[in-house]
C-alpha cells in the first residue's frame, strides 16, 4: 500500500481511499464528490480527518492513510496504514452497539455515545490491518 498523493480518490470498486501520513504540513481537499455526497479531507502526519456532507465521519491521530473505505447503515470497513499506532474515532449511529474487528479478530464491543462517536486504537507499523465495524442487533 502507499499514501494517497491526491489526498482522496475513488477506487474502481466504489470505495474511497484517503490520507497521507507522511506530510509535514496540513493539506486539504474540499467538495470531493462521490455518488452525490461531498467529502472533505484534511491530512498530515499528526491527524487525518474525513467529513461527509459537513459531518465528521472518521479521524485518526496521528495521521494515517485509509484504503478502500466504505460505510453504510450496518457499519464500516477499511484498511489503515501509518508510522505508529493510531487512535481512530468514527461517527456512526448514536447510542448503538458495534463489534470491532481488526484483521478478522473480534477485539470487543463498543457503544457509541449520544453523538454517535466510537474511539478505538489500531496497532500499525509494518502491517496494514483491515478494520471492520459491525452494528450489533
Describe the structure.
The protein is globular, with a radius of gyration of 14 Å. The protein has a single domain (8-135), classed as Chondroitinase Ac, Chain A, domain 3 (Sandwich). The N and C termini lie far apart (34 Å). It is mainly beta. It contains no helices and 13 strands. Helix content is 0%, strand content 59%. The strands form 2 sheets. Strands 1-2-7-8-13-10-11 form a 7-stranded antiparallel β-sheet, with no helix packed on it. A 6-stranded antiparallel β-sheet has the order 3-4-5-6-9-12, with no helix packed on it. β3 (27-34) and β4 form a beta hairpin. This is Endosialidase. It comes from Anaerotignum faecicola.
Which features does this protein show?
mainly beta, Chondroitinase Ac, Chain A, domain 3, 7-stranded antiparallel beta sheet, 0% helix, 59% strand, Endosialidase
CATH topology: Chondroitinase Ac, Chain A, domain 3
Gap from first CA to last CA = 34 Å
Low-confidence stretches: none
Q: Please count the beta strands (DSSP E, at least 2 residues each).
A: 13
- Radius of gyration over C-alpha positions, nearest whole angstrom: 14 Å
